[in-house]
Amino acid sequence: MTDTHPTRAEYAHEMRELQDDVLRLGSMVDRQITRAIDALRKQDVKGAQQVIDIDQKVNDARWKIEDDTMRLIARQGPMAGDLRRILASVHIATNLERMGDHADGISRLTLRTADQPHLRELDDIPKMAETASSMLNDALQAYVENDPQRAREIAARDNEVDRLYESVYRDLITVMIADPDSVSQATHLLWVGHNLERIADRVTNICERIIFAATGDFEEVNPKDFGGQFSHTN
C-alpha cells in the first residue's frame, strides 16, 4: 500500500511556494502603485487604464494564495510557528490586494482629471508614493527574513507618509479657498493622497503580521493619533 502522506520535503516546498506567491503578488502591487502615480503625473489615460485592467490579476493572485493556503493547512496540519506564518501570509496577501485597489482608485481619479492642467506641482504626492513603495519592499524582505524588529522600524516610517499627506491636505485646502473653480480637481487630488496614505497604513498592517508570525504576539505598531491629525499649534 502506497503512503500518500506528504513528506517533510513536500511540506517545505509548499511553504516556499506560499512565500514566493506572496512576494510575486507584492511585486505586482508595487508596480501598480508606481504605474498609477506615473500615469497621474503624465496625465496618461492609457497608462491609468492599464492599471485598472490589471487589477483583476491582482485579485486573482490573492484568491489563489488563499485557496492554496486552505489546502496546505488541510494537508499538513501545521502547528505553532508554521501555522502562524501561513495565517500571516493570508493576511499579508489580503492587504496587498487592498493596496492594489488603492492603485486602481488613483488611476480612476486620473481618468477623471486627465483633461485638466494640474493645479500645481505634485511633489508631495509622488514622495508619498515613493515612501510607501519603499516601505512595501522592505516589509516584504522582513517577511522573508521573519524579522520582527525590522518590521517595527518599517512601520514607524508611516509617520513620514502621514506628514506628507498633511502637507498635501493643507496645500489643497488653501488652493480651494483661493480659487473655488479648483475645488473639483483639488478634491480628486485629496483622494489620491488619501489612497497613498492608506497604502502605507496597509504596509503597517503587514508589519504587524510579520511580528505575529515571528513572536506569536499581536502587537499594534505605530498607532495613529487621529485626534491630532491635521491639527496644529500656534
Index terms:
single chain, 234 residues, mainly alpha, Methane Monooxygenase Hydroxylase, Chain G, domain 1, 7 helices, elongated
Describe this entry's structure for a reader.
The protein is an all-alpha fold and 234 residues long. The chain has a single domain, classed as Phosphate transport system protein phou homolog 2, domain 2 (Methane Monooxygenase Hydroxylase, Chain G, domain 1), CATH 1.20.58.220. Helix content is 79%, strand content 0%. It has 7 helices and no strands. It has helices at 8-42, 45-76, 80-113, 124-145, 148-156, 158-178, 183-215. Helix 1 packs antiparallel against helix 4, helix 3 runs antiparallel to helix 7 and helix 5 (148-156) runs antiparallel to helix 7 (183-215). The longest helix has 35 residues, at 8-42. The model is unreliable at 226-234 (pLDDT under 50).
**Rg result:** 20 Å
Overall strand count: 0
Low-confidence stretches: 226-234
Level of helix content?
over 70%
Order of helices and strands: HHHHHHH
In CATH's first tier, which class applies?
A: Mainly Alpha
| Biggest beta sheet attributes | none
- Number of self-contained structural domains: 1
Q: What is the correct CATH architecture?
A: Up-down Bundle
Strand content: under 5%
Q: In DSSP terms, counting alpha (H) and pi (I) runs of 4 or more, how many helices?
A: 7
Helix/strand structural class: mainly alpha
Going by CATH, the homologous superfamily would be Phosphate transport system protein phou homolog 2, domain 2
Average pLDDT metric: 91
The dominant shape is elongated
- The termini sit apart by 80 Å
CATH topology tier name: Methane Monooxygenase Hydroxylase, Chain G, domain 1
